[in-house]
Each structure stands twice: as C-alpha cells, then as structure tokens.
Amino acid sequence: MQHALVSNLTNLITVDGLVVSKLTGEIHGYDGKTSIFSTPATAQPSLSDCRSVDDFALHLKDVDRRKLPAHTLHQLRNEVDSARGEWYRTGVDCRITLPQQRLLEKLHQLVTYHNAIFMTQTDLAKALNVDESNLMKKLKVLEQTDILRTYTSRNSNIRSREIKLTINPRLIFRGNDQARGRYIADWYKPASHLRTSVIGTFEMNESISAAA
C-alpha cells in the first residue's frame, strides 16, 4: 500500500499551478510551486542582443507600444530645418538633402520601437520600392553621412538574408525623451556602432521603469 502511494506521487507533476498525473492526465489539485518539468519561459532579448526578425519580435512582446509617444515626422522635419538654418548662419553644410529626407521618411514608417528596424532584405527592398540587388546602394546615401548604420551577416552576426538598421536618434526615434537623449549621446561616442552593452543597459533600465 505504501509502495503504491509513493509510486503514485512520483507520477505527479505541476503544470501551470495544477498537480497532474503524468500517466493519466488527471488533475489532482493545485500547487503554487513551479514544476521542474515545466518549460521555462523564453528570456526576452535586449534590443542590442537581437540578431534576427524573430529576436526583435520577441523583444517587442514586453513593450507596450500604446504608451509610446505619437510617432510623427515632426522631429525629422525640425532637424532638416535646423540643419538648413545652421548652413545659412555658419556656412557649415550639414544639410539633409531631399533624397535623404525622402528615404528617411520611408524608413520612419518602418520603425516600430526606438531607432531600430529588423526586416528580411527582401521585405525591406519591397518597402523602399527598390530591387533587392540595389538595396545596399539605396541605403548608402544615408550611411555615408552616418545618418544610418546597417548590419547584415556580412559585417555582423545578423541572421543571413536579414538586415538590421539603426537610424540617428536625433532624426527618428520612437520612445520617450529620456531614452532618446541617452541614445543620442551614445550615437556620437567614438565607435558607438560597435558598442552594444550600453544600449543593452538602456533597454534593461527602461523595461524596469515600465514595469514599475
């Protein structure tokens, strides 16, 4: 009798707070403890750790985008006007050209969070109305002035056939002003496109703040 009781107990597991028999599926009650047989929740990657479209989608699951500021073109257009005014006043030509502005406005539509875009190269080419073979050439107009940074499997560890874009957060950023300020400061630090730990910390702090 005692042997049968022990055998029965060893066949019980906890699934979502329920005590269940592994043999019959019968529910024996409730248990607040987590079963060692339960599958652990997938860890949410920080934005800097995302290496694929799937990683980015997983990251966004913990982001309540309803609480983000309105995603408008005001900031981009203000910066365009500011750069033009700087050129008039000082002669320093930091203007954003019309082709650059038009491309930025298209990219603006693709930004869902902060200043990053993760897409397959095929989908990005379609969104920008360009042949996939000419995609990198199309983006070069922004890359050469450090308005845009691109990452693929050729220059980083992004999944093959996919692409990650980060845009100068002064021009395009979907998030609160505090986060934007940190991203701007980091963007202009030497070799900031090679630094990921700082942005990862930003993401962690922001997630903690959002949860509070």
Structural account:
InterPro entries: WH-like_DNA-bd_sf, WH_DNA-bd_sf. It is elongated and about 80 Å long. It has 8 helices and 6 strands, in the order αβββαααβααββαα. The termini are far apart. Mean pLDDT is 81; it is low at 1-7, 32-41, 194-202 and 207-212. It has 212 residues and is an alpha+beta fold. It folds into 2 domains: 1-36, no CATH class; 47-205, no CATH class.
Task: Count the domains.
Answer: 2
Strand/helix succession: HEEEHHHEHHEEHH
Strand adjacency order, main sheet: 1-2-3
Shape: elongated
Distance between the termini: 52 Å
Assembly context of the chains:
single chain
Low-confidence stretches: 1-7, 32-41, 194-202, 207-212
Q: What structural class do the secondary elements suggest?
A: alpha+beta
InterPro entries: WH-like_DNA-bd_sf (IPR036388), WH_DNA-bd_sf (IPR036390)
What is shown here, in short?
With 212 residues, the chain is an alpha+beta fold.
List the helices and strands and how they pair.
Elements lengths: L1 H9 L1 E4 L2 E4 L5 E4 L22 H8 L13 H17 L7 H13 L5 E5 H7 L7 H9 L4 E4 L10 E6 L9 H11 L9 H15 L1
Antiparallel strand pairs: 1-2, 2-3, 4-6, 5-6
Helix pairs in contact: 7-8
InterPro entries: WH-like_DNA-bd_sf, WH_DNA-bd_sf
